[in-house]
Every structure is written in structure tokens, then in C-alpha cells.
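Could you please consider the sequence and fold following this short note?
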Amino acid sequence: MSGNFGCQFWITYAGDDKEAWKCIGLARSVKRTLSTRPLGVILSDNVSLDMGRRLQSEFQICHRIDPLLLQLNGIPYQFRSTAKIYAQQLPQLDHSVFIDCNCLALKNCDELFRQNGVQWVKQTGSEYAAIVVQSSTVTKENKKTNIEKIVSRENGLKVATPSMIDVDDQEFHYCMEVDFSGETPTQLSGDEIKMVCFVNENHPLEYEREKANNRDGFLKELARFWKSLLPENFATSRKLPVSWLIYYKIYFVSIIARQVKILLN
């Protein structure tokens, strides 16, 4: 890795195996853009050991935590919220960019490390911070306060004063929100698209491949891009022609017969 960027990490989260696959796709998309920053992931104990090992091969930092670490009145926070709070407490992640696992990098996004703010993404019945950047100029105490406010807003917590849900960091719009279930063609502004965020639980990982192929041109290209990031998930076994199967069957039977004949002699 060229340069010395101290504690500048890309951070994401995986609450289960499905989100772990999303993280792997996200990590590979960031690497493909030749990002100069390393990657870290906060994973839940609900992630299997096998997927945990896969994540370790893709990320420089992996922290496994209890998904029930943070609760309010016996109700656990969304894991994306728990991961945000946990990541903020790690000294080695002092100045990181937190990206939701539903995002994909299409072009180099290292410029985000020079920004300060939050991008909120709305989905059916809720909203969450898809990108959180807190610059080195923000004090440690303010960073903690901002994360707490973000988590309160993500989980729809009722608080005593409205100021508790007004995040001090400026709100910006960096990644494009994409919904594979939309019936109308995706509206493109003409601006350069460097990152996308899949909303309403319509990530290419979850969306039916056949339907994805019938989407408009932009969505179809995104589906192809996702497929290129996880070739192991799209590999199909090739069936041999019947003629070859018959050939191999005869071949192996002849070998066995020959071995039996040798033993009898």
C-alpha cells in the first residue's frame, strides 16, 4: 500500500452470512478501483465460521462482536448501528469511512476521506446512514456524540429533545440510490456515478437473476458488475455430453475387468 494514511480505513459490517457476501463484493469493488486505503469489517457472531474466514481473506481488520451488544428496553439495535458505535471506539479506526454493506464502489472514492458528513438513505419504513465520514478535525467527544445521534435516528428512538436526532455533521449526497424492484427506468442525472447503494432489500445478491436481466440498461450493467465480483457464486457445473459419459463408463468398466483378470491369474 503506497503512502501513509494512518488510521484511514474503509469500514463496513456483516450481521449474517448474506451480509458477509455483500461485504466481500463491496471489498472487491473498492480494491478494483485501486483504493489506497485498507478495509475493515465488523461482523456479528451470527456470521458462520466459514464466512468469517472468507472475510478475513478480503479485509485487513476483522472484529467479531455480539449482535446483542447494544439494546434498548430489551430490543437490540440494528447491527449496522451497533457496528458504527463499536468501530468508533477502536483507536486504530480513528478516521475511517463507514460504508453500508449494500453499497458498491464503481470508481475510486478515496476523496471521501477528505469530506465530513453523512449520507442518509431512505427505504420503506425507515432510513439509515449509508456513508459516515468524520474528519480528523472533529474532536473525539463530538465524534462519539454524532454516532450516538446517527444510531438514534437509524433505530427510530424517541428522545427527549429534537436536537438529539439532528446530526451535527453536514448531510451530503455521494452514492446513487438504486432499487432493482422499480417499475420505471432508472433516472440518471448525467453526473459521474462513483458509488451506488441498493435500497429496499433489492441488492443484486437477493434479486432474482432472471428479473435482473430484464431491467433497464443501467441496472443490467450493475447486475453484471456484481456477478463479476463474485464469480464463485455464479459458477455453473458443465454437464458432459451423453456420448462422453457412455465412453467413460465403458472405459472404467474395462479397467476394472482387466484388474480382476490379473488378480484371478
Notes: The two ends are 67 Å apart (CA to CA). DSSP finds eight helices and eleven strands in the chain. The chain has one domain: 10-234.
